[in-house]
Amino acid sequence: MITFKEAYKKVVSHRLDLGSEMVPLINSHGRVLASSIVADRDFPPFNRATKDGIAINYSALESGSTRLKIEGVASAGMYQQQLKSSTTCLEVMTGAVVPLGTDTVIMYEHLTIKDGWANIEKEVTKGQNIHYKGSDETQGAVLLQQGKRIGSADIGVMASVGAAMVSVKALPTVCAIATGNELVAVENIPEPHQIRKSNSITLQVALSKLGIAATALHLKDDKKAIEEGLQKALQENDVLLLSGGVSKGKFDFIPEVMDALGVEKVFHRVAQRPGKPFWFGVHRTYKTVIFSFPGNPVSTFANYHLYFLPWLHTSLEIPVETKFVSLVSPLTIQAPLTRFIQVETYWENARLCAKPVTENGSGDLTSLAKADGFICLEPREASYEVGEVVKFVATR
Amino acid sequence: MITFKEAYKKVVSHRLDLGSEMVPLINSHGRVLASSIVADRDFPPFNRATKDGIAINYSALESGSTRLKIEGVASAGMYQQQLKSSTTCLEVMTGAVVPLGTDTVIMYEHLTIKDGWANIEKEVTKGQNIHYKGSDETQGAVLLQQGKRIGSADIGVMASVGAAMVSVKALPTVCAIATGNELVAVENIPEPHQIRKSNSITLQVALSKLGIAATALHLKDDKKAIEEGLQKALQENDVLLLSGGVSKGKFDFIPEVMDALGVEKVFHRVAQRPGKPFWFGVHRTYKTVIFSFPGNPVSTFANYHLYFLPWLHTSLEIPVETKFVSLVSPLTIQAPLTRFIQVETYWENARLCAKPVTENGSGDLTSLAKADGFICLEPREASYEVGEVVKFVATR
Question: What structural domains and CATH numbers belong to chain B?
Answer without folding.
Answer: 4-18+171-315 (3.40.980.10), 20-43+135-169 (3.90.105.10), 48-131 (2.170.190.11), 323-394 (2.40.340.10)
